Amino acid sequence: MNLGDLLPHLFDVLLSRFNLLLQLLDLVVEYELELFQFLIFLFQIIDASFLHKNGQRVSENSRDAT
């Protein structure tokens, strides 16, 4: 083997590592997006439940006042 044969292989290895890094970054971003979507959904459910409970208390208090 000579230097002329090693340079293309070295370039392929570096390019492959960069490609793997980009794929890993894409995977992390994808899972973070799914996590954020899940958390938003969860907070909407919690918020709706909280508002529903508070709405019942307000209705009960307004009935007691009359």
Q: Largest beta sheet, briefly?
A: none
List unreliable stretches of 5+ residues.
none
Termini, distance in Å? Answer: 96 Å
Radius of gyration (CA) equals: 29 Å
How many beta-strand elements? 0
How many individual helices?
A: 1
Shape: rod-shaped
| Average residue-wise pLDDT | 84
By secondary-structure content and strand pairing, the structural class works out as mainly alpha
Q: Strand-residue fraction?
A: under 5%
**Residue share in helix:** over 70%
Order of helices and strands: H
What would you note in describing this structure?
This protein has 66 residues and is mainly alpha-helical. The chain is 95% helix and 0% strand. It has 1 helix and no strands. The longest helix has 63 residues, at 3-65. It is rod-shaped. The model has no long low-confidence stretch (mean pLDDT 84).
Question: Helices, strands, pairings?
Answer:
Elements: H1 3-65
Summarize it:
With 66 residues, this protein is mainly α. It has one helix at 3-65.
Keywords for this entry:
single chain, 66 residues, mainly alpha, 1 helix, 95% helix, 0% strand, rod-shaped
